[in-house]
Amino acid sequence: MRTAAILRHLRDAGVLRDDFVPLLYLKVVRHGESLKAGVYEFSGPMSAVDALEKTIRGDVILRTVTIREGLDRFTVGELMSQAGFGRAADWKKATADPDLIRDIDPEAKSLEGYLFPDTYKLTPGTPIRVILKKMTDNFRKHFGGELALLANGLDLHETVTLASIVETEAHIPAERPLIASVYLNRHRKGMRLQADPTVIYALKLAGRWSGNIHKDDLMMDAPYNTYRVDGFPPGPIANPGLASLRAAASPAHTAFLYFVSRNDGTSAFSSTLEQHNQNVQLYQRDYWKSEK
Question: Cα angle at 190 between 169 and 225, to 5 degrees?
Answer without folding.
Answer: 50
